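Lest this sound abstract, we let one protein speak, letters for residues, whole numbers for local backbone shapes, and leave readers to judge:
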Amino acid sequence: MDWSVGILAAVIGYVLGSISFARVINRLVAPQVDVTQTELTAEGTGQKVQLTAVSGTSVSVHLGPKWGMFTALLDMLKTALPALAFRLVYPGAHYFLIVAVMGVVGHNWPVFHRFKGGRGLSPIYGGLFVVDFIGAWVTSFGGMLFGLIIVRDVVVSFLAGLWFMIPWLWFRTYDVWYLAYAIIVNVLFMVAMIPEIKKVIELRRQGGGANMAADMTATPMLRMITQMANRVGLLKKV
């Protein structure tokens, strides 16, 4: 590996990842709204939940799900396109994995916005579509089914797709670079999620051991998974 190219890949990945499309969409569509300040009410608890992330989720809350989905798509592309470019320009090399990882770092801790960004789910899957297109679908849907059908926990269904990346990429490639990529993006996501994890623990304590799914319905994506699971009878109503 040419480390000068590796450094270039890291810088490009981080700088592009630092572009906060949530803020861009906010300024273009509704500049009077502040997507950096998002407060939700957890269903079933009445507790106020302050979101510290600035991402497609916060855009969805303030501007609606369509703009939230559009933001998430842009966040995926800002990692996917540069990773694809490096994979095509340097076939057989692992520079694209560096781009994919650093895109997540930039998204979570953007240099342009005092290192206050999102949690990394969209750029992770954006990069994974380039790393292993089939794996992106298999792990995400497999994780959802595992969480909803086997564990019957909506939070597990949300996270398991990321966890499944690790064994999937290892047994698919037997390449330590791919394995390292899967482990690192999981760690980056969990570190960025620490504020939400603390809030879940706090809500559970206040609710006397209430179901975690009920606590986490304050997050729009988890609310969507919960509603879908409830409709097909996979979870108790929350």
